[in-house]
Specification:
two-stranded antiparallel sheet, about 325 residues, 9-stranded parallel beta sheet, globular
């Protein structure tokens, strides 16, 4: 497949890490980029300037050393405020601005942001036009198929987006009320792709190389976006890229490689957030990496008690070293 062009940027391979709150921070984005993702979108940042100087926002807006293109997702409901947020993030390193109209979380939708915006098409147009005019860089949009099964208006929103100058559109094949339940449907994405001239990215339930190939064929989309399937499995991007390029399947990474990837990820988290916060944030990633491994429950119960970076790293190395050696892990209490 030819690279997807988003403004001046060629996204190659055509694989995008979905923005996920509390997950796609800089350490995880950089890891997924190394593992083969063509574009990694930041977790959602607020458009409210009152929160830009909090510790959480400063970490979310930290792009130092991150490989280009740097895509930052913003969320909000007021066109002028969203425009200011776009300018602010561009001034702080963003090379692509992504607008969130896909998040189904109640706290986001209750503020009429995220996927709730799809219920107000006129407001959607005003937000998109304001951000495109203000950003000075390519602006992308992420949506769902609609608010509910009887309120599917993704094609209408897609046409509004193209008319407003949106550079690429990502579509999750679920309505908001589905959250992440049921199965994603791809017919809506295919219909949107057939009607638009801008790149369309298909999202939803893409959890294997074979599924990525099927979705691309089914929808005609220009790229696929992977979200939850990358949690604890960042190498899915190279697996998909290899399959799309050759039709063949890569072997699973060895336990040694998984150990090395995970240890490097933990070290980056500790350095990025500081030891105390880094250790806490790393726990969910440890659970995802170990979820399909033997002794998973015992490993998590012990490693989650580790209060220091050294203890967390030691327990993780010992666990995977035992798996490599083919012996039962000696899961003793964290020091």
């Amino acid at each position: 497949m030819a690279p997807v062009k988003i403004g001046p940027y060629a996204i190659e391979p055509n694989l995008v890490l979905a923005p996920m709150a509390g997950v796609t921070d800089k350490p995880f984005r950089m890891l997924c980029k190394r593992m083969g993702a063509g574009l990694c979108v930041s977790e959602m940042t607020t458009s409210d300037p009152r929160f830009w100087n909090t510790s959480k926002s400063r970490h979310r807006m930290d792009h130092d050393g991150e490989p280009a293109p740097i895509s930052v997702q913003i969320a909000g409901t007021v066109p002028e405020v969203m425009a200011d947020a776009a300018r602010y993030n561009v001034d702080h390193g963003a090379q692509i601005i992504d607008i969130n109209m896909g998040c189904p979380a109640k706290k986001v939708c209750n503020a009429w942001a995220g996927s709730a915006l799809m219920r107000d098409e006129a407001l959607v147009a005003r937000i998109l036009e304001a951000v495109v005019d203000a950003a000075g860089v390519p602006v992308t949009l992420k949506i769902r198929t609609g608010w509910a099964a009887d309120q599917r208006n993704a094609l209408t929103i897609a046409r509004i987006a193209e008319a407003a100058g949106i550079a690429a559109l990502a579509v999750h094949g679920r309505t908001r009320d589905q959250q992440y339940t049921g199965l994603a449907e791809y017919d809506t994405i295919a219909e949107i792709k057939s009607q638009l001239s801008i790149p369309v990215v298909a999202n939803g339930d893409i959890d294997s190389p074979q599924k990525a190939a099927l979705v691309l064929t089914r929808t005609g989309a220009d790229a696929v976006m992977v979200g939850r399937a990358a949690q604890g499995r960042p190498w899915i991007f190279r697996e998909i890229a290899h399959h799309l390029a050759t039709g063949e399947l890569l072997a699973e990474p060895s336990l040694r490689e998984i150990r090395d990837i995970l240890v490097s990820h933990l070290e980056h988290l500790h350095a990025f957030y500081g030891e105390h916060a880094g250790v806490r944030i790393a726990r969910k990633h440890l659970g995802w990496y170990a979820k399909d491994r033997p002794e998973n429950a015992a490993f998590r119960s012990v490693v989650n008690k580790a209060e220091t970076a050294d203890a967390q790293l030691r327990l993780t190395r010992d666990y995977f070293d035992a798996l490599v050696a083919g012996v039962a892990p000696d899961l003793h209490e964290a020091a």
